[in-house]
Protein 1
Amino acid sequence: MPTVGMGRGLTFAMAAACGLAVANIYYNQPMLGVIGHELGDGLINLVPTATQLGYAAGLFLLVPLGDLHERRWLIMLQFGLLAVALAAAAVSPSATMLILASVIVGAAATVAQQIVPFAAHLAAPERRGETVGVVMSGLLCGILLSRALAGLVAVQFGWRAMFWLAVPVALAAAAWMGSRLPRGAPDMQLSYPALLRSMVALWREFPALRLAAITQALMFGAFSAFWSMLALHLAEPRFGFGADIAGLFGVIGAVGVLAAPVAGRMADSRGPHGAILIGALLALGSWALLGLWTSIAGLVIGVVLLDFAVHASLVSNQHIVYALRPEARARINTLFMGTMFMGGAAGSAAASQAWALAGWSGVAALGVICAIGAAGLQIFAKR
């Protein structure tokens, strides 16, 4: 059975590895000012975009390989590639070199998306939601805490130190996964081009996948709208805070990660659909709060509720999609996460326009619209 050896220790190891992997795509964001000061090139502003594009490419080109190759070996190989790319970023003499290294960092960091479906594969069916929830907690902690860590290290030791610090961490994660993960034989025998083409058929075949992916894209759009505009909002005269305080909100938002295992257990015992709807309604309430209660207290409570809502919805939607076709979990994960990240990118872009037009009130209105869309999809689908 695939569940052999999937205890709490292995679950924690996979959660930690996910967080350590995904954190690498966010380290550069709070360090842009420091990097730009040293390299003195306007192209530095393209580094976060290059990293995200690399991550998107990795989602669609590397993650499906989990259905084609032995997963343990693939995870170790991607962590090794990540270490090499981080070292290249650390020694980059120019913005161009750093941008190229950042593309590879982003692509290799999708090793986190190899681990999550593998955890679903290894878990017993009656505990799959809880297991995925715990692993996703690690991934989400990596996202939320990475900016605060990078900002601190960059201020104290310089931006190159952060990338050098991440190199042995990636190598240690590769060794850790190699020692803990069981071998995961591939479930399919396809050529690589056929593997990529098959994702189109999977998208068409499963309405539940489309519903889950689009719902989560709207939820992640609401999530990204907040985080992309938070620093600008905190810099307004009413607050007058800098990027360091914005980074600390990631630590506060990490409280919402507790939703992931709770939602997973709920999905196991009562089904995932109720948790998804609750998450969408909670996101709606959080954005209403963020728009109306314009104080630090309102921001703190609102971000905890928003993170809780998005994470609960995410784990519950994953519970649905990972059960659709076990032998195609890597490709299904690609479609689900790829759609979600496109929603996040759209949310960030729309938030920039909303900010330009109406400030924080416009961003809050955008968040409300995204949450209403997610809740409406779930209500309509149920009826």
Protein 2
Amino acid sequence: MSSGGDWKEMFKAACDGDLALVEYHVKSGVDVNYAHPEFFSTPLVGAILAGQESIALHLLDRGADPHLVSEFDAMTPLQAARKVQLHAVEQRLLTLGAQASAPAVAARRSGWVFWRRRSA
């Protein structure tokens, strides 16, 4: 149901901490568990790695899958929360049954990651 542009804007908003824009896209039907084929990253893991605790918790409240591996980042939401030490997110993920380990996933690399990491 979501267009790539809507998802991209929501993903960027999640990484930037723009809760109002994230909520707008969620209410508009953008899939919080979609991983765009250009990025192979999930909004939840993107928000966590950007240190956006309130956005990550919001995405979980709105149905983000706590078990979904972000292929680009080669980690689960729980692994991401532990990496950047977002303890409230880690606790919520554990409450939702998230596991510490995930299947091995090769990280994808693109020029886009440079933009994402710099803008976070």
Protein 3
Amino acid sequence: MPEEAVVDELKKYDNTKILDKVECEVLVLDGTAEMTFGAAKELYDALVNVKNKDYILFDDDSTAQCHTQMGGYATGAETIMDWLEDHI
């Protein structure tokens, strides 16, 4: 399945109507080379009832700018684990 078809298929699953119910701490990760760049920031902005939320944008310098930090797993894992350590 071409990558565009996957993105189109995923658009069928929309949780925007329930995002106002989320209240737990949230970490939202994004990358400048993400297939749907900007969607993660939209999610972060839509979490209006989350008091403690963080948005991290990975770029070329981090080597973790791709989807799921592919190619930059060490950077991504360190960031996620540091966040978890600070929030759990």
